[in-house]
Amino acid sequence: MPPRPLRVAGVRDLGPQFTDNPHRMAGQDGAYSIPLPDGTALWFFGDTAIGERPPGSFRDVFERLAAAGQPQGHAPFERMPTNTGLILRDRTGEHGLRDFSYLLDDAGEILQLVPDGAADRPGWDRTWCLHGVALGERLYLYYQHIRMREKAGGPFAMGFEVLGTGLARGEIGAWRFERIPHEGADLWWPYPQPQFAAAVLPAGGWLYLYGVAADAAGTQQAYLARVRPEDVEHRDRYAYFDGEGWSPDVAAAAPLFDGPPNELSVSYNGYLGQYLCVHSMGLSGPQVMRTAPQPWGPWSDPTTFWTVEAASDKKYPVIAYAAKEHPELARDGGRVLYVTFIEHEEYFPHLLEVTLG
Known about the structure:
This protein is mostly beta strands. It is 3% helix and 41% strand. It has a domain at 20-266: 5 Propeller (Tachylectin-2, Chain A), CATH 2.115.10. It has one helix spanning 58-67; strands at 8-16, 25-28, 32-35, 41-45, 48-50, 84-88, 100-102, 125-135, 138-148, 160-171, 177-180, 189-190, 199-203, 206-214, 220-227, 239-241, 246-247, 264-269, 274-280, 286-292, 303-307, 320-325, 336-343, 349-356. The protein is globular.
C-alpha cells in the first residue's frame, strides 16, 4: 500500500501557549505530550526559563549570554531547569490550552523531572526532553544529554554538542524520576548513533521509537527501533529496522526519510487510515507532515502546512523548530489536528489547528 496524498484545508493560528502561569515561567521549548491513564496528558518540555523576561526577543538574551561566554541557564534568569512538565486536562486544543498545572518541587517551584547526572557540569551539561510513554502507573521519559560549547558555532548563538540519549523512569503522581543505566552508563544511544526516542509510537503490541542522525553527507535521516512494552527497560532487547526486517544491531538501521530534526511526532490517524508524521523541515520555517501505511513506511514526501515568516522589524532570520502533533487533542476522527512548534524569538509552544482536506 502506498502512502496517501495529503491535502490541508486550513490552518488556524492559536498563538503561544502557557504564557499565563503563576510560576514566572518566561519561556520553554520541547513540548512533547504523553497521554496518561486518567485521560489527562503530561507535557514534557526542554529548557524552561524562570524569572523576569527581559525586553526584546528571547534570542537577544541568548546572544548576550554567548557574547559574555556564559551558557544557557545563567543570568538574567533566576533559574533554567533543563526539562520540566505539566499536566494538561484539556481534551482538545480548540480554544487553546488553558487547564494545566505545572509539576512542582517541595518548595512550590517548577520541578526538573529527569535529574542531572552525577558528573554533569551545572549550566553546561543539559538534559533535554525527548518523548516518552505511560505503561500502567509507570512513566518512562527518554532524554537527550547535550553539552554547551564555550565558543559559539552553528545557527544558534550558544552552540552545543550532542552526547547521546537515555531513559528515565518514575511513578505517575510521585513525579520523581531516576535514570536507567545500560552497561554502567546513562547513555543508551551515544552520539553519533540515531538519537532515539524523538517520537514514541505504541502500535500492534510494540513501542516504535523514531530517532534521527546525520549521514556522511550531513543530511538528517530518520531511523526506527522497536521493543515490547514489557522490555522497555532493557536496552539489549531493542531491535532496529534495517530496510527489510529487524536487527539487534543499531548499526544496521536503515534511513526512513530525510530532513527531520531530532523532534517529531508519529501517530495513527484514523481519518487518513495511515500513520502521520509531523516535523519541522530544517530551521528555516517550514512545518511539514507526511504519511505511511506502516510505522516503517514507505513514507510520503513532506507536505508543508505552515511556514513561519519573520516580522519586518525582526533582525534575525527565522529559527522555527520542534513541530509535533498532539494526537490526544485531535477532533473529528483525526481530521482536525493540533500541532505545536517553537519560534526561537518567541520561545513558547505555539499552537496551530490544522484541518485536513
